[in-house]
Amino acid sequence: MELKGIHHVSALTAKAANNYQFYTKVMGMRLIKKTVNQDDTSVYHLFYGDEKGNPGTELTFFEIPMAARTHKGGNSISATSLRVKDNSALEYWKDRFAEFKVDQDDIVERGGRLTLAFRDPEGQRLILVSDEHNTGVEAGKPWEKGAVPAEKAILGLGPVQLTVESAEAVIGILTNLLGFRKKGSYPAAEPGQPEILVYETGNGGSGAEVHIEERQDLPRERLGRGGVHHVAFRVDNEEEMKQWVKKIKEARIPNSGFVDRYYFRSLYFREPNGILFELATDGPGFDTDEELEHLGESLALPPFLEGKRAEIEAKLKPLDTANL
Q1: Is 324 inside any structural domain?
Q2: Start-to-end CA span in the chain (Å)
């Protein structure tokens, strides 16, 4: 069994409508599924991705209305990367962010790749990463009807950064349990701090990396809007997922057991620093209940929630996603 890379990252937003506007109109990503949080059906769960929401391209948001802002700190998923085709695409985004008044930093190298860090309107910490010299897990295919030219578009998820009190603890889970391997390291942004450690899985490359920053000087992050809830890693299929459930159980790690999310199958557990990990299957996929041309245009509910549609829709604030 080998994890294939990053499957998705799920974050929090306080305002679904504003979130939708930013990630479709500014970032040019496709809303591939408008559904609800299956554990709290009173709030939206929005999925953004490439043309069809291929595994490894999905950035998702749970809407928590009135959520307080995230108080940044340790034992957190402190940055999510988004892949672009090459270095010239970063220059395009530098100009685009200036045009839309997006809070951004300078283009700098991280781990051998050029990157551009920025924040969404709620302070979500994001990093564009160039695929110019990248190999390994293939990128996604941008949606041609998006607001950004395909040559400059977001191609999927890049490295996820974890800021933890104990690097050794999470590395033990990544290597001994999940099969990650060490790739290298690079200098931390702040002088005097330990190097950022890079671990990868599957075919490696940007779409299969976890970057680990050890910081023992930070308070624990208080999660709110603009923060990340969990990261999910790719499992090939349902049969393999059942083997992972068995393996995690045998390791005596508290976990969710097998969970059917309809669009994929899942397993959840926390690593020793408290960060929530998910394993998620590549399929069945997001075009299971909607035509590819019309993904994300209407409220999609898995069959086990369909009977409660009227009740669910009554609690949701209308969100028009049919007209870009």
Answers
A1: no
A2: 41
Count H helices, E strands: the chain? 6, 16
3-class state of residue 191 by DSSP: coil
CATH no. for residue 71?
Answer: 3.10.180.10
Provide CB contacts within 8 A for 318, sequence distance 6+.
Answer: none
pTM recorded for the entire structure: 0.97
Residue 118 in domain: yes
The residues, any chain, with a CB within 8 Å of residue 240's CB and separated by 6 or more, are: 1, 281
Task: For 7-24, write each residue's pLDDT tens digit.
Answer: 999 999 999 999 999 999
Q: pLDDT for 115-153, tens place per residue? A: 999 999 999 999 999 999 999 999 999 999 999 999 999
What's the mean per-residue pLDDT of the chain? 97
CB 24 within 8 A of CB 300: no
Domain of residue 211 covers: 6-315
DSSP state of 19: H
Residue 16 lies in a domain: yes
The answer to whether residue 250 is domain-embedded is: yes
- The bridge status of strand 228-235 relative to strand 276-284 is parallel
DSSP 88-107: HHHHHHHHHHHHTT-EEEEE
Structural domains in the chain (count): 1
The residues that bridge with 276 in the sheet, in sequence order, are 270
CA angle (316, 322, 323) in 5-degree steps: 125
